[in-house]
Amino acid sequence: MSLTASNTAGVPNKHDDMDKQVETDGVAVVEQQVHGDFEDVADMPDEAYLRAPKKVRWFRGTLFQMFLFGLLSFSGPAMSDAIDNLGGGGLATPYTANAANAAQYSIACAMTLFGGPLINKLGIKWSCIIAATFFPIQGASYYVNSKYGTQWFVIFVGAIGGFFGGLLYVAESTAMLSYPRAQERGKYIGIWVSMRNSGQLLGGAISLGVNVKTAGVGAVSITTYLIFIVLECLGLPGALLLSPTRKVRRPDGVPVPLAAPQSWKMETKLLLKHIIHKRTLLMAIPAFYSFFYGGVYTTYLSLHFSVRARALSSFLYPLCTILLCTGFGRLIDSKRWSQKTRAWIGFAFWAVPQAAVFVWTAILYAQFEKNNLKGIDYTNNTADWFRCYLPYLIIQTTGYACQLYLYWLLGCFSSDVKSSARTGGLFRCFETAGQAISHGINSRTSDKRIPLYINIGIFFLMVPTLSILIRMVPKDPHNYDDVTDEKKTQAVTQEAIATTEARGL
């Protein structure tokens, strides 16, 4: 349903003339003031939206959009992660799954590099629709491999999945950075992260129910994949329900800031300007690091734990992640401290436990080598299971807190949707590069301590670069200069508002 001033459900006819005046004069004045750079202007409430019926406001509101993005993550990446969290995709060994993930993230890395301009052309909604059509194919590839032993199909689907996954990664990143208001960013990103993990939680519950009697090592039941395929089909309806970005409104009626359409040549120039910006260069290593642990620790789980212990893990860690990230999102939104102080607190929240986990895991690997520990199960030796599983649980839960934090941190610098698309695309480019390399080295290296040591090395590179980026965070929201400095958004906005108020709009 359109929310234009001249055609909004529930708006009385007596307002038509005034609304047409707003549409023909006010918008023209605003567009003229920004010299064509912005279609919507920040801090100007949409009166037609505020007068619309409650169900329309809910449907177009940012909160409902976050739930839909959560549904997309639930049925797509969450189901993929749930399969991966079985350890090696639930297969008897992790090597095929690691090769497929390496192929997927390599293509996704290339895709997300140019994802910003592509998303700006396709739009967030259509990018999500295209991506959602692929979700069930990935689950089907694991089913075919488990039933017929067709390993090449898993790797092939992983490779083409990088294209579709890259579209989704940049689309949802753009929305996370630009849709919420500054004071609600942690809360809304927390909703998205929690819904993504609720998908893994459900997937884990299914895996545990199907595989609870399998105490040995090996592959999970083939029925597990059929259930995942059904859940992956939910993504397309969710994508179709998304509102086009130009129609999305924040709770106070303010539209999401939109930059005007640009040519491919200009999009490329703006992307290059983003790439060489100091913030982008500082963001590269933290983004590369953020999910590097995935290949390292899913291999760890696959090689040393029983089938039902892996199934229990796929249920237990999403539950803990939901609880942790919900609280963490509220913590970094707290008004008790300045924005910069919250940035430092949020950094310590996940970085300190991860540093401890790396030391813990290195000690465990030495013990595994000495005692040849495999098939660790929570019923046979609970103490050993807890001691060996806890570092995996900590790294997985704080890993999502790390991603939530990095989105929140980048949101401190974002302005309009198109700028956020470039930032989000580059962020996901570096992130998927880390995932591709992590899974790649875990599919080839016989000594699994080597990927762990590489992960530790990247951690020590990440700490100083992220610290420098935190020092650039303004004390208060919106006190920043955009990377592309598109006509000094804030100053132009205030001038446009003053002009429209002078006309009595």
TrEMBL record:
Molecular function terms from GO: transmembrane transporter activity
Gene3D superfamilies: MFS general substrate transporter like domains
Membrane protein topology class: Multi-pass membrane protein
Subcellular location: Membrane
Main location group: membrane
Transmembrane portions of the chain: 58-79, 99-119, 126-144, 150-170, 191-210, 222-242, 281-303, 315-332, 344-366, 389-410, 452-473
UniProt KW Translocase keyword: no
Pfam families per UniProt: MFS_1
UniProt keyword list: Membrane, Transmembrane, Transmembrane helix
GO cellular component terms, semicolon-separated: membrane
Protein name per its UniProtKB record: UNC93-like protein
Organism: Kwoniella dejecticola CBS 10117
